[in-house]
Automatic annotation (TrEMBL):
Transmembrane segments: none annotated. Residues 5-82 form the Smr domain. InterPro entries: Smr_dom (IPR002625), Smr_dom_sf (IPR036063). Pfam families: Smr (PF01713). This is DNA mismatch repair protein MutS.
């Protein structure tokens, strides 16, 4: 199962971005999704940096397996999960 989160509608609302990211991570764990696609968009890259900082937090990092940046589209990230 693959989930998708597009951050375009809330790009300028910091608190909502964190809630949306936490929500999609929790949903992926609950539904045992193997992959979450996060779309921060291309823009200036600030939103992507914010997403990467969020994902790099110790308690969040423990929840997923790895992150890939799309080589063809720098406006998206993939977060992969391993469920036991």
């Amino acid at each position: 199962m693959k989930l998708k989160l597009d951050l375009h509608p809330i790009y300028n609302r910091g608190g909502e971005i964190d809630k949306a990211l936490r929500g999609i991570i929790d949903e992926a764990i609950r539904k045992k999704a193997t992959e979450v696609e996060i779309i921060p968009g291309k823009g200036s890259g600030q939103l992507k940096k914010k997403v990467l900082r969020f994902l790099d937090q110790k308690e969040i990092k423990a929840l997923y397996h790895r992150i890939d940046k799309d080589s063809k589209n720098h406006g998206r990230l993939f977060v992969y999960f391993r469920h036991r």
